[in-house]
Amino acid sequence: MTEPPRPARVAVIGGTGWVGRHLLAAFADRGHEVLALARNDAAHLPPGAFRRLDLTAAGPDALAELLDRERVGIVVNATDGANATDGWDRSDEEMTATNVHAVERLLAALARLPGRPRLVHLGSMHEYGPVPDGTLMGESLTPAPVNAYTRSRLAGTRSVLDAARAGTVSAVVLRLANVCGPHPSSAAFLGKLLSRLRDAAAGERGVRLTVAEGARRDFVDVRDVARAVVLAAVAPVDGRAVNIGSGTATPVPELVDLFLAVTGLPAGTVRRDLRPVDGLGSDWMRVDNRLAARLLGWSPQVPLRTSLVDMWRS
Q1: CA distances from residue 230 to 8, 22, 119 in whole angstroms, order as listed
Q2: How far apart are CA 291 and CA 293, in angstroms?
Q3: What is residue 6's DSSP assignment?
Q4: What is the SS3 assignment for 125?
Q5: What would the pLDDT profile of 54-67 be if each residue is shown by its tens digit?
């Protein structure tokens, strides 16, 4: 009796990050062998699942040799985190190196391989730039980012789409809304919020939170993101950008209040300072996820409150 083919081996670039760890777990749950490619190892990785890689420094030949040697059939580029705020402390040169040049080297490496590994590239909904309040943000929107970070993200996305449409790689881009859930990045808004609330829970007095007044954003759980990536890796979709989000625009002050309620901290333990919207250039995000449903069979499943509860307990 012929055995069914084994699932493709998966390499997650940025696999030691908070989104990457969930991607590895989601693929492993579906029977894939997984590898994390990153600068530094992490304690949560299974034995033998790490290979050292700096995508900003690796040349296409060396990267192609690594992927070929490890028999990788699916590559996920999760190098720049899941929230646009992860990249704000970098110089313009660093943003370009990570979000543009490194992506171009990855595409050149994949084009060298005979087996054409599948690429899922994680982009950002912030690539679209500001939109009027009430806009349901679908893929037909013309991207118009307003700062160096989001322009660099868009340039990386366009490189992937151009290569896929030219037939040199097999690739799809997922543009992510603001990601929440267990083990958030300390550089992201929710990671910083979690840290301050843990300080308050530990007894620190006078904890203050800076909250974007009037901002309404789309938050999607990291496990829903991981499920979307797994589906995109095997879907017959090439050269497309697909938006991934909850489809709900949640007021940021309301999100903070919900998180405070989840923690069980006494009223008045934390003070909020309302400030204007930050440098993202937009105070509204609501993702139209209907194309993800049609092309990938994906829809969000984890409610926001559940995501925050699990983040607090993680």
Answers
A1: 11, 11, 11
A2: 5
A3: P
A4: helix
A5: 999 999 999 999 99
Structure tokens, 281: 């250039």
Q: What are phi and psi of 60, to 5 degrees?
A: -60, -40
Asked if 121 and 172 count as a contact pair (C-beta separation under 8 A), the reply is yes
Q: What is the three-class DSSP state of 279?
A: coil
Distance CA 283, CA 285 (A): 7
In whole angstroms, give the CA distance from residue 127 to residue 158: 11
What is the pTM (predicted TM-score) of this model?
Answer: 0.94
The residue to which tokens 């110089």 are assigned? 91
pLDDT tier, 84 (very low <50, low <70, confident <90, very high otherwise): very low
What's the one-letter identity of residue 284?
W
Strand spans (E) along 98-177? 118-124, 170-176
Q: Cite the DSSP H helix spans in 185-281.
A: 189-201, 222-234, 252-263
Distance CA 270, CA 52 (A): 41
Looking at 149, 259, 284, 298, which residue is catalytic? 149
206 is written with which tokens?
A: 């006078």
User: Catalytic annotation on 149?
Assistant: yes
